[in-house]
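Q: I'm building a small set of examples for a reading group on sequence design. Run inverse folding on the following structure and report the sequence directly after it, with nothing in between.
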């Protein structure tokens, strides 16, 4: 029964193509007249795997909305979890950005790459940190997301967490996944380090933790 309902739901994705949402614009398209009734369910389903003009796939939409059964079926039928849209956004980024923890789990089990970056350099981990989805931050770290991948401004998830006053659990979890002190001392585009930001935030507990983990106190 659940699969049958999901099949019906997937078929209705023809209507979803009328409202394509990107990060910056919403494009309304009238495509109903161009979609003929499929000869078989399989034929119709394969059409759902083709990206629309904004290159947002049904899997990205299902991930954004938290539609678990739809996402599962799309993946079972061959949807690529790492496919990017025009802004290099992926289904995992959409799920992380919108707090869809169950879908994050599903995508990671399907070997979705947690370290892909969009056109600004942001990763799924950065999105989860910025949106304060603490549980998803932990899931991504456990799924081998790298906490020190830099965006185009040379910031990373750890620096972002400190600047955005993330919870101690998140910051310390990010720290625990830093592979070496050398990486911990990386600077952003302003020449700041995790330690310098922690000092500016007057977060003594974090300063102590950073020093214990090998942060260099002699850097600016």
């Amino acid at each position: 029964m659940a699969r049958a309902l999901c099949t019906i739901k997937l078929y209705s994705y023809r209507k979803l193509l009328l409202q394509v949402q990107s990060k910056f614009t919403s494009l309304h398209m009238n495509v109903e007249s161009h979609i003929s009734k499929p000869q078989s369910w399989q034929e119709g389903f394969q059409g759902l795997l083709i990206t629309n003009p904004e290159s947002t796939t049904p899997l990205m939409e299902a991930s954004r909305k938290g539609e678990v059964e739809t996402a599962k079926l799309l993946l079972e039928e061959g949807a690529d979890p790492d496919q990017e849209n025009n802004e290099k956004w992926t289904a995992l980024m959409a799920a992380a950005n919108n707090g869809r923890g169950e879908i994050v789990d599903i995508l990671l089990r399907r070997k979705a790459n947690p370290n892909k970056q969009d056109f600004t350099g942001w990763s799924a981990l950065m999105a989860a940190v910025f949106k304060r989805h603490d549980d998803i931050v932990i899931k991504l770290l456990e799924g081998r997301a790298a906490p020190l991948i830099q965006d185009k401004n040379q910031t990373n998830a750890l620096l972002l967490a400190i600047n955005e006053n993330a919870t101690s659990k998140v910051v310390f979890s990010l720290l625990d996944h830093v592979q070496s002190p050398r990486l911990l001392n990386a600077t952003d585009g302003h020449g700041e380090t995790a330690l310098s930001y922690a000092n500016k935030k007057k977060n003594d507990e974090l300063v102590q933790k950073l020093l214990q983990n090998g942060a260099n106190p002699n850097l600016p």
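The radius of gyration is 20 Å.
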